[in-house]
Predict the structure of HNH endonuclease.
Amino acid sequence: MSIGDKDIKKLWGLAAGRCSFPKCGVDCIPFLDEESPTIIGEMAHIIAKKPDGPRGVSGGSEDKYENLILLCPTHHTTIDKAPEGVYSVDLINEWKRQHEEKVNNYMHSIRYSTINEVAKAIKRLLLKNHKIWQEFGPESYRAKENPISNISEYWDLIKLSVIVPNNKKIISIIEAHEDIFDIDEYSICIDFIVNAELFEKSCYSIIENTKRFPPKFTEVIDKYVYEK
């Protein structure tokens, strides 16, 4: 049995596409070649699939999210080639838990002084998301030029590892500074939050009639980014 699509998406999404080995965090889908997206991340088994594999048990294990950790090739090799007992199942599970917790909590504690600083922080994240969507999304020229390329696979992973985490960072910034916006602006911010949450859900399963990104949110942010 191969790893299921939902397990793949959950693993990559919760790890934000970064190696979960302590103090590594390398990007598992780097932009090595703009014309041919590269996926270097490896979905390593915590308990080996076969009884005689690394950290193996009688009967082997399953290809499930609970038994997988996202690693770069170097650290996948490191833990699997190490002598028995160096990297235990409990230790690897703890790495995974800590990494996912770090991803989830990232930027929650950041506080800016002015609305202009808030807007600039959000704008940087929006620009990165838009660039990725423009280059690799389903409406990109790459996807249209070659529908049978690996772009769709790359898009499925990069939206979970970059766009969704960036959206979460934006939501965290908004929630930490909700009092800095006026009521009408905050209402538009809520539209973005709803859209971002639906986008994340759509990464895991098909959601009919999802709304597109609210352009008024960009207008609110740009108002303060380019304010003279």
